Amino acid sequence: EDNKKAEKKKAEDNKKAEEAKEKEKEKRDASIIRVKKEIYFLGGTPITEFEVESDDQYIAALRKQIEDLKLQKEAEEKEIRESIPEWFVKLPQSSDETIYVRGTDISDDLQLSIDLATNAALRSLGKKLETRLNSKAKETVKQAGIGSNKTSKSEFNRISSIVVKEVTVSGWEVHETKMIPLENGDYRSFILLKYPVGQALKAYKAEIDNSPELKGRLTLIKNTDAYKELEKAVAQYSGS
Question: Distance between CA atoms of 167 and 196, rounded to whole angstroms?
Fold first, then answer.
């Protein structure tokens, strides 16, 4: 009888020990997943498990990796803060005639870092020009009294999109640029682009004048103050 009780107790103890072991393992696994996620978030790649002997050592090694990544990130950020050019922080003021936009990016290839920074600046240029052209379109449509005409409105939107696409391909010039080698072997490029607004307005006016969709309303459009201002800006830009 006593033996049976002792065996039962032993079995229960073993079961409890197994359950506790299992819970401990689950906790460790969850901890490993959490720490790995943080490493990925910091831009690193977690070390592999076979590099260490036990789970506890693995977690400790991963935590050490996090600390190292944080230090590296801090050093990079400090380096970037110290190397950001003044013209990038204090952009030249854009005007009716000129738009200034900036971009920055990192790559392990110097030329690619310049290209990525340029693309970032061009995206910004596209958005700024789209805002300007859309407000001109709204003014023109309103003044011409064709605001209720869906075809005309969507044609103006289409023209704005065409012009914005053209702008990001050509016409802009690099005003300032700076490349910085980072400690990890990557490069960070800063770029400042300058764009003459008159060029976009010239393309915009040409699209309006030659649009088959707006042909029937072109006289109304040309009589608006908004169009006359557009003509004036284009003439000034073209030097005619």
Answer: 10
